[in-house]
C-alpha cells in the first residue's frame, strides 16, 4: 500500500480524497496556491506545501512544483482528483519516471480516450454503438458538407480536444455549415491548441446517461450502474441522479455491458466514466469517456454503497476489485451542484461566505470545502458544494433534496440554490421525463409563469 498520498487538487475533491485516505490510514499531502492558503484541504492534510501563485498554470498545473512537493514530503503516490492534471497523460508519465504512483488509468489509455475522435473510433472497434458521422478530423468544408448530407441535418461539430461543454457547435443546414466550419476549427485551435474537428449526427432530445466503470491491474472490469446527467446548462451538468428514471434493468445491463466491453478493449484500469446519449426510441450511442473520478460520483456511492475514491486507491496499489459488476441500485440518489454563480445569468460570484449553514438529517450528504468566513477565490471553478440526497425511491430523494435546499443557507455570495429549488418543484422534472434540452423548456415555463403572474 502507498505510504503517503499527495493530492494534486483543491476544493471539495481534495477534501474528499483526504477523507478516503484517512479511512485507509494513509497520510496525505495537500498542495495549495497562495490564493488557497485558508483552504480546508491545506488544513486537514497531514502535510501541506505551497506550490505557487494563484494562476493555475503556475500552481495546480505546475508539474515541477508538484513533483518537488512529493519529493520533499516523502509522498509515494499522487491522486489527481478531477480537472487540472487528472486527464494529462504526460503528468502520469512524469510521475512514473520519478518513481511515484499514479492513482488513475495508464497514460496511453488517457491519451487515447482524451482525443474524442479517437475515442469514438475505438468505441466503434469495440462494437459499441456510435452516432452516424465520422471520427476522422475533417480537412475541408467540402468534406464536412459531404458527410453532413450523408448523415442528415442536424449535425454537431466537435473539437477532438474539447471538454467541459466547450468546443461544440450544432449545425442545422448546409448554409450554416459553410459558415460554422472554419469558425469551429479556429475556435478549437485557439481554445485547445488543436484545431481538429469531427462531425456526428445531432440528436434532438436525448438523455445523457453515463456509466461508472472500474478496472484493476488483473484484467477485471466492472460497471457500477448509471448516472443520468440530462439537466445541463450550456452542456454543463447541474443535477445528476442514479438510477436513471429511463432505464429498465434490461437496458441497464445492455448499456453497462457495452461500457465494460469498451474498457476491456482498451485495457482500462481504475475509475472511469463512459458517457452515452440515449435516444427517445431506446437506442444508445457512445459519446465520450472520462478517465478519472467524476464530480457526480457520490450519487453512485449512495446507491451502491461503494466508496469509489477508496477503491481508486486500492486498485492503484494493485489490489483486485472486490465488487460485483452491475449491482442493482439501492434506492435513489440525486446531486445538486451548488455553484457560486448568479442563478439567472450564471455569472461567477466569488467572495466571502458570511453565513454558511449546511443541512443534515436523514439521507443528506454535503461535500464541500466551504465554511463561514471562507473567501471563494475568483481564480478557479465556481463549485462550492455538492448537495446529495438518498431516499428509498426517487420521490423520497426529491423530497429530501427539496427540504435540504431550504435548510442550506449561504450568504455573502450568489449561488444556484434558488434555481435548484425551482427545478425540484418543476412538474416535468418530477415526472422524470428528462432530456438534455430540459433547461430550455424549464426556462420557457418559468417565463410564462412570470408573465402570467
Ligand atoms: P464535453 O466533453 O465537453 O463534456 P460531451 O461530448 O460529453 O462534451 O457532450 C456534452 C453534452 O453535449 C452532452 O451531454 C449533450 O448534452 C450534448 N451533446 C454532445 N453530443 C451530442 C449529439 N451528438 N447530439 C445531441 N447532443 C449532444
Percent in helix:
25-40%
In percent terms, what proportion of residues is strand? 25-35%
Describe the biggest sheet? 8 strands, antiparallel
Order of strands across the widest beta sheet?
14-13-10-11-12-15-20-18
CATH topology of the largest domain: D-amino Acid Aminotransferase, Chain A, domain 1
Number of strands: 21
Distance between the termini: 62 Å
Count every helix, treating DSSP H or I runs of 4 or more residues as helices.
15
The value of Rg in angstroms is 22 Å
Quaternary state of this entry equals single chain
Shape: globular
Describe the structure.
- 36% of the residues lie in helices and 26% in strands.
- The chain is an alpha+beta fold and 453 residues long.
- It folds into 3 domains: 5-103, 3-Layer(aba) Sandwich (Rossmann fold); 132-201, Dna Ligase, domain 1 (2-Layer Sandwich), CATH 3.30.1490.20; 207-452, D-amino Acid Aminotransferase, Chain A, domain 1.
- The strands form 5 sheets. Strands 14-13-10-11-12-15-20-18 form an 8-stranded antiparallel beta sheet. A 5-stranded parallel beta sheet has the order 3-2-1-4-5. A 4-stranded antiparallel beta sheet has the order 6-9-7-8.
- A hairpin with a 2-residue loop joins strand 11 (221-233) and strand 12 (236-242).
- Helix 4 (89-97) packs antiparallel against helix 5, helix 7 (141-151) crosses helix 8 and helix 12 runs antiparallel to helix 13.
- Bound molecules: adenosine-5'-diphosphate (ADP).
- Adenosine-5'-diphosphate is lined by residues 131, 156, 162-166, 168, 200, 202-203, 206, 208, 232, 235, 275, 277, 287-288, 436.
